[in-house]
Amino acid sequence: MNDVRELLGRAAEDAGQPVISTEVVYARAARVRRRRVAAVSAAAVCAVAAGAFVVPGIAAERTPQTSSVAAPAKPVGNSARAGKLIKLLPAGVGSVEQVSLAVIIKQATPEQAKEHLYGPLDGQYSVRRDGGVGYLVIGLMDAKTLEKKLGGGPRDTDLCKTRTGEPHRTDCVSEKLPDGSELTIWSDSMNYGDGGTPQWGPELVARLSLKDGGQLVMRDSTGFEAGTAQGPLLRTPPLTRAQLRTLMLRPELLVRK
Question: What are the φ and ψ backbone dihedral angles of 132, each rounded to 5 degrees?
Fold first, then answer.
């Protein structure tokens, strides 16, 4: 099974191990479902990318911030990656900061929250807007590492297919691009009925299957509800579907060869 949502992480419940990567910090809501579909999948790989990266400023005190929908995106904290991402985002997104979900959700230490990232803008970013907090999570994996993680097993290429135990993926659209890659974007209600914490709000999910066999995936999330939440859910994902598509096609998110 090729669940793109899990490509960006396993549940935050593993926080506290010597090193925590993006794959262990994002989708606790998928835990019960993963138990039902025991398989080695691409779902746990996209954020395990090569190269270590320590999330800057995660131990610093943070003050909740909001921004008007009419205001341009602006950086918060000390994050070079966030600054680069902001340059690619449209006006009105909100205040953007690179964060560690392991730190936010499970209070991991900065050392534990080290990430292994491959793409130039891979990471987890909070987006504050109109009193709410959502997230953009970006993960890139090259073909060689992806194949290693999959163990040479078959891939389910129909991302719009409804799977047992999952809510229907609504508004799922795949398109072939001129360079031979394929972009798929869908809506996910995140209503998996597991009653876990945190409980993620609705989101948009995108996967770009590259011609060379690599993958770029992104979650455009309204946020989560839990005692550790940074704020209420956004009313809508940080990016619209059109804005998400535009961002997914930016070459700045890919490794230049």
Answer: -105, 170
